[in-house]
Automatic annotation (TrEMBL):
Coiled coil start-end: none
Gene3D superfamilies on file: P-loop containing nucleotide triphosphate hydrolases
Biased composition (Polar residues): 1-10
Residues where ATP binds: 251-258
GO MF annotations, alphabetized: 3'-5' DNA helicase activity; ATP binding; DNA binding; hydrolase activity
Superkingdom of source: Bacteria
Protein name: Helicase
Location of region: Disordered: 1-22
Keyword ATP-binding among UniProt keywords: yes
Span of domain UvrD-like helicase ATP-binding: 230-643
Species annotation: Streptomyces monashensis
ATP-binding among keywords: yes
GO cellular component, one term: cytosol
PANTHER family recorded: DNA 3'-5' HELICASE, UVRD / RECB / PCRA DNA HELICASE FAMILY MEMBER
Length: 792
């Protein structure tokens, strides 16, 4: 295919400059054409090999064949997806001075890549010795020379790590913007502006003001974009950090923690696909953030092995749909709940058989309408059986004793049932008087075993055991806790009476809160699941992964379906990434910890944005979940989201919320100051008018953030304004961003919970361009409308 030279989108006002830009675009276009020609060749090869292999069966060593086929076949898949989905398959280029690669760092990237001696002449001139193109996947030409280097390969690291302060061999770093097969533009950053560098005898041209600024200024949609073409050096260090142990990342709002976490998942898969076939779990705070970030991994060519799940969706068959008030959340999230649950799981046994058992099973997702009510047939208080022709009976006191002894075991409650059964038989045997009948131990044992058989085959015994030691499900126990008196008993000296009342009331509601999900998971561990005959299931292709087989399921099952299926089947993962980690309660840390007992971890968060009121307790739980694995700590310091004007305002709240902590520095300024608006009469009219004004000003999205208890009415305020604008409760705004935001009543948000100031800090840091703060009386605005909380 002939190279197509594309016209620059920029007009010709700038004359000579534009012709240089056009020439540079056409240079990149030629390269992209070569890449596509090569990909087409590979897809043909792949089809040929596939057909050939199908006709002739396996030839050669299966591993080697499969590996080779997989490579070409993967190229085919990528080509299809490139044509359909990717806007910028090839996105970067670096022009390098002559040099020798230095030492490899622990992450496999070259760390000390300095120019060779003599690469820069004394007069400040130098020649470009090597040019590398960077893209979403690697492509080699027919001679195995790289046409495109995968962004995750060590050789691509200088594209991200080189800075004017520490340029290494990189002279010019170029971001290429393309759509499908068409190059649309280029943006250059000069890493060594002091040099006069030549490429093929011509001076190296530099186009544009840098790609980062161009990316940051773009309008936002309701889905996050990948940042693969503009990852910054400090972020790249985190993405490529070795997987072993725990990678711990802190950074203020907008420093790219979520973006980095997602790119890290893609990087880890690239590094060691086989190891991570055990699955990567990304835990996100809200379903909104899951929906916002879901597209990033597919855009990086990865999805199958990564499950992104909200913290309220980690337990299959239960989904968080409700919010708890701060005081209920505080009780349910705290470590104290562990003791309450242990007591409840044991206490629930005494309540007898829940009715109907199946309807409340944890794995019956659609049938939990009764979760708030505990309808039980009372636990039997007498056991009557006939054995060896005699009637035997155990009364309430004896049954109680047996139950207490059985519960003295350390196994999960449901797994103690065999022990309880054995103790019942012992008690009945003692009553039978048959114990001393034989002195010969063998005969005595025989007699006992026929006694046991006699008793256990009786319907009355079987029925009794089912009612007296029913197999409990987590949902049943949680439902049993909705009774205030009962909960009061189980939580004596653990929760105060006010907490008992509120927690019990919250459990009466139809549905579960995000905090209930962690309780259900804990109960599952406390109760245990008795072994059942395993269901036959199809062979998991990942169990026998070789290059080719890995790709086969793509045809029968979409990547997404496969990811969902695997996510459901999996209970433990090879790597766990926790986003917004500062928000996890102790009980949630326990839940997440159970999913990564043998995993390596990446934990990203910002203590200043924590909505959990007791950070010390949460830190203790986190340390317990992460165990003694060594930690590698990183700090992200640059705010890519908020313009300086907005970051400065938010920093005032940070100073109140966490005195002494440092806000990240904003990377850009827009000259647009935040706007302050007071409510003259109707809050609804003020907010709606402001949202309309902002919708006119920005191309992308507008978020209206209100206190949690106003979110329903706020949705009504905005009715009919279209889907570019959304209303959010303050806790729902976590991790999201909008072109413009309206923050309604800082005082209301701050007063809503003990962590209210930190929640307000989150709300104020969501905007990429414009922020309006609307104040009511409670905010005590000054003459300029600035609320008390945001004044100097
Ligand atoms: N290197 C980068 N190039 C371009 N955009 C970037 C870069 N790093 C971050 N961003 C953008 O900055 C914004 C903030 O990123 P992200 O949401 O990952 O930050 P965060 O640290 O998780 O923020 P928060 O703590 O507020 O949730 C996003 O729009 C992201 O795409």
């Amino acid at each position: 295919m002939a190279a197509q030279v594309q016209q620059s989108a920029v007009g010709s006002v700038h004359g000579a400059h534009d012709s240089v830009r056009d020439r540079e675009i056409s240079v990149e276009q030629e390269h992209l054409d070569r890449v596509y020609r090569r990909l087409e060749e590979k897809i043909h090869e792949a089809e040929f090999l596939m057909n050939d292999a199908a006709q002739r069966g396996q030839v050669g060593t299966p591993g080697a064949l499969a590996e080779r086929d997989a490579q070409v076949f993967r190229a085919g898949i990528h080509l299809n997806r490139l044509n359909n989905e990717f806007e910028d398959f090839l996105f970067g280029r670096i022009d390098l001075l002559l040099g020798k690669d230095g030492k490899k760092g622990p992450d496999g990237a070259y760390t000390a890549v300095e120019p060779a001696e003599g690469a820069v002449r004394e007069d400040g001139t130098a020649d470009i010795a090597e040019t590398l193109h960077i893209g979403r996947i690697g492509v080699l030409d027919a001679d195995y020379a790289p046409l495109v280097i995968d962004w995750r390969a060590p050789a691509a690291a200088p594209f991200y790590r080189s800075t004017p302060v520490d340029p290494g061999r990189v002279v010019r770093r170029r971001v290429i913007r393309s759509k499908g097969r068409r190059v649309l533009g280029v943006e250059d950053d000069l890493m060594r502006p002091e040099l006069t560098a030549r490429l093929d005898g011509r001076e190296l041209p530099v186009i544009g003001d840098g790609a980062l600024m161009a990316a940051l200024g773009q309008a936002r949609s309701h889905t996050m974009r990948d940042i693969v073409s503009s990852i910054q050096a400090e972020q790249d260090l985190v993405i490529r950090a070795p997987a072993a142990s725990v990678t711990y990342v802190e950074g203020g709002p907008g420093t790219g923690k979520t973006a980095v976490a997602l790119h890290r998942a893609a990087y880890l898969l690239y590094q060691d696909r086989r190891r991570y076939s055990g699955g990567i779990l990304i835990v996100s705070p809200t379903p909104l953030l899951v929906a916002y970030t879901e597209g990033v991994l597919p855009s990086l060519g990865e999805e199958g092995q990564v499950a992104i799940r909200a913290i309220g969706s980690l337990v299959d068959g239960a989904e968080a749909t409700l919010y708890d008030s701060p005081s209920v959340a505080r009780a349910k999230g705290s470590y104290r709940m562990l003791k309450v649950l242990r007591k409840a799981a044991r206490g629930a046994l005494e309540l007898g058989t829940p009715e109907p058992v199946e309807q409340l099973a944890l794995d019956a997702p659609d049938e939990d309408e009764d979760a708030g009510q505990w309808t039980a047939a009372a636990s039997p208080t007498r056991l009557r059986v006939v054995a060896f022709g005699r009637r035997l009976e155990l009364e309430a006191a004896e049954l109680d004793r047996v139950r207490r002894t059985a519960l003295g075991g350390t196994a999960p409650v449901n797994l103690l049932r065999p022990r309880a059964r054995k103790l019942l038989l012992d008690a009945l045997w003692a009553r039978s008087g048959a114990a001393g009948r034989h002195s010969d131990p063998e005969l005595a044992a025989e007699l006992r075993s026929s006694f046991d058989e006699d008793v256990t085959s009786e319907d009355s015994f079987i029925g009794f055991l089912d009612a007296w030691w029913p197999e409990l499900t987590p949902k049943q126990v949680l439902a049993a806790m909705a009774d205030e008196k009962r909960l009061g008993r189980w939580a004596r000296r653990i929760l105060n009476p006010g907490e008992v009342r509120k927690v019990a009331r919250s459990l009466k509601r139809d549905g579960h809160s995000v905090h209930d999900i962690a309780l259900l998971d804990e109960l599952q561990a406390i109760l245990g699941v008795p072994a059942r005959p395993k269901k036959k299931r199809d062979l998991d292709p990942l169990d026998h992964l070789t290059g080719l087989e890995e790709l086969m399921p793509v045809r029968e099952e979409s990547q997404r379906e496969r990811a969902e299926r695997l996510a459901q089947e999996r209970t433990e993962y090879a790597h766990v990434i926790v986003d917004e980690a500062q928000d996890l309660t102790p009980m949630q840390w326990r839940m997440v910890g159970r999913r990564g007992r043998h995993a390596t971890w990446t934990v990203v968060g910002d203590p200043a944005q924590s909505s959990w009121s007791d950070p010390d307790e949460a830190a203790e739980a986190r340390d317990e979940a992460l165990g003694t694995r060594p930690r590698r700590r990183f700090q992200l310091t640059v705010n890519y989201r908020n313009p300086a004007e907005i970051a400065e305002l938010a920093a005032k709240v940070l100073a109140l919320a966490m005195p002494g902590s440092k806000a990240p520095s904003a990377v850009r300024s827009t000259g647009v100051e935040p706007r302050f608006s007071v409510v003259p009469d109707s809050l609804e009219r003020t907010v709606r008018a402001e949202a309309e004004r902002l919708l006119d000003l920005v191309d992308g999205t507008v978020g209206v953030v209100v206190a949690m208890n106003r979110r329903q009415e706020a949705r009504r305020w905005l009715a009919g304004l279209g889907d570019r604008v959304v209303a959010l409760g303050s806790l729902e705004a976590k991790g999201l961003e909008y072109d413009a935001t309206v923050v309604v009543s800082p005082a209301e948000i701050a007063d809503e919970s003990p962590a209210g100031l930190r929640v307000l800090y989150v709300a104020l840091t969501r905007a990429t361009q414009q922020l309006t703060v609307v104040s009511g009386d409670r905010d005590e605005p000054d003459a300029a409308g600035v609320p008390d909380l945001l004044r100097d």
